[in-house]
Amino acid sequence: MRLSTAKTMRPRMTLTQAETLAPPRARDRRATARRAHFWLTLLLLCTCAISLETGASGVSLLSALRSGVAGEAPFQSIILWEVRLPRVLLGVLVGAALAVSGAVMQGLFRNPLADPGIVGVSAGAGLGAVTAIVLGGLVPIGLRDSLGIYLVPLAAFLGGWASVLLLYGVATRSGRTSVATMLLAGIALGALSGAVSGLLIHAADDQQLRDLTFWGLGSLAGATWTKVAVATPIIAVAVIGATLLGRSLNGLAFGEATALHLGIPVQRVKNLAILTVAAATGGAVAVSGGIGFIGIVVPHLLRLATGPDHGPLLVNCALLGASLLLGADIISRLIIAPAELPIGIVTAVLGAPVFLWILLRRRGLMDL
Amino acid sequence: MLRADKVSVDIGRMRILSEIDATAAPGAVTAIVGPNGSGKTTLLRALTGEIAARGNLTLDGVRISPRNAAALAVRRGVLPQASHLAFPFTVLEVVRIGHRAGRFAGRPDLPLHALDRVGLRHMADRFYQDLSGGEQQRVQLARVMAQIWEPVGQDGPNWLFLDEPVSSLDIGQQLAIMRLARDFATRGGGVVTVMHDLNLTAMFADSVMVLHNGKVAATGTPRDVLTSAILSRVYDCNLQVSTPPPHGIAYILPQASNGTAAP
Question: For domain B1-75+152-219, which CATH number applies: 3.90.226.10, 3.40.50.300, 3.40.50.10490, 1.20.1050.10?
Answer without folding.
Answer: 3.40.50.300
